[in-house]
Amino acid sequence: MFESLQERLGSILNGLTGRGALNEADVSAALREVRRALLEADVALEVVRSFTDKVREKAVGAAVLKSIKPGQMVVKIVHDELIDMLGAEGVAIDLNAPAPVVVMMVGLQGSGKTTTAAKIARRLTERQGKKVLMASLDTRRPAAQEQLRQLGEQVKVATLPIVTGQTPVDIARRAVQAAKLGGHDVVILDTAGRTHIDEPLMAEMADIRKVSAPHEILLVADSLTGQDAVNLAKSFDDRVGITGLVLTRMDGDGRGGAALSMRAVTGKPIKLIGTGEKMDALEEFHPKRIADRILGMGDIVSLVEKAAENIDAEQAAAMAKKMQSGKFDLNDLAAQLQQMSKMGGMGGIMGMMPGMGKMKDQMAAAGLDDKMFGRQLAIISSMTKKERANPDLLKHSRKKRIAAGSGTDAAEINKLLKMHRGMADMMKAMGGKGKGGGLMRGMMGGLASKMGLGGMMPGMGGMPDLSKMDPKQIEALQKQAQAAGLGGGLPKGLPGMGGGGLPGLPGGMKLPGGLPGLGGLPGLGKKK
Questions:
Q1: Do the Cβ atoms of 459 and 507 come closer than 8 Å?
Q2: 415: closest CA among 394, 401, 384, 442?
Q3: 178 CB contacts (<8 Å, ≥6 apart)?
Q4: What domains lie within the chain, and their CATH numbers?
Q5: Which label site among 271, 277, 424, 504 has the fewest CB atoms less than 10 Å from its CB?
Q6: Whole-model pTM?
Q7: How far apart are alpha carbons 507 and 61 in whole angstroms?
């Protein structure tokens, strides 16, 4: 969503941090570029003007211009103001009211209200143990009520039985009554939308609000619509009084202006964001994390949360124990590929790592994408149990059979086996040193090394902290990686190598134990 804005702001702010001293003219020139970047990202003019004025006011002060690193101080000010613009703290759906708590979903047709209603219901049921009832009030759109019923079955949430001929107001009244009788904690009302805002729509929303007394009124808006989404929010807030926003399609390639503008224009918090079509593709909106991503600082906390949700602790412990014995077969490799896919694939994980966002283009050029994971999983799935446990059995005739079964060719099978051998050697070395739990690190490090980016991911793949190695050790490590078929050099001027580059995680910051492949990130070094 924010890739183009991230690139623009990154280049502007890097120009500031690379200079030893700044004057007021330097800051003003940089802020003109920031203003242009925000306007091109479709951020509302009034929001841009307020943002740049606040940054200028703080950035031209003597404390900044005379500080030891004025460029970094300006970056911090931009970061803080971004957080302030998005809302200082994340705000969750408020359920502190007598049951049943009524949540009313409003928005235009096609914004994703029905799907979002089901996602919220699933989230409340699975994460908070709430008993939820959903009701469709859309009597105009064909099969709208049936769609919600089917989604309810999919997420295992009850839906209000459909009674033909009832008005939206009657359905709302019946839903609240049914929720009371059924002992439900929450009732979600999925209201009808229009292709545009009109008086009948607003009158209907007001009538529904009157009979259902909702505790939360959530406006669902498509984040790809830009400024129209901001105007939509203002109109609904003026007429109905919304309590929060849900932005859908945040995984799209839009410019992100709506997300940056809506909170500032309406004063209402963005509570949730939709990141895909699947029922679990809904996240809480954390302003600081979004600001970190926009400025290329990564989002380690979200990465850990995704790991905690998708990684089975028992399986991870068993695999770590197996690795410590020096064993790493193709079944283990398949398990790691599947875990990475669940966490958003290589691109999704790298986008959350500090300073790694710019690697996506290099990854794509090297053919390292989720399609590659799919092909590799297909190859492994086409093998027999014996072949997966003992890859040395794979001679020409077997490879020919596997290629036919997986829709690939012998060259791709050989690449997979070469990568596996290199990783197995690395895991064996790691296991001998008693450093278990680094399987995913090993895979990511191996893949990065494969495309010549090994040094950009110090600490991944069990690599030691390069900042503590002398040149001869680094050269030996490089030769070992090339001999293992993982190729690529260790670029200079990167974190942990004494050549500048991006600062790493603060010393001592470690990810929670029990998350395989994500523990410790030892090679990202300390800030100085």
A1: no
A2: 394
A3: 133, 135, 160, 184, 187
A4: 3-86 (1.20.120.140), 101-294 (3.40.50.300), 300-524 (1.10.260.30)
A5: 277
A6: 0.61
A7: 30
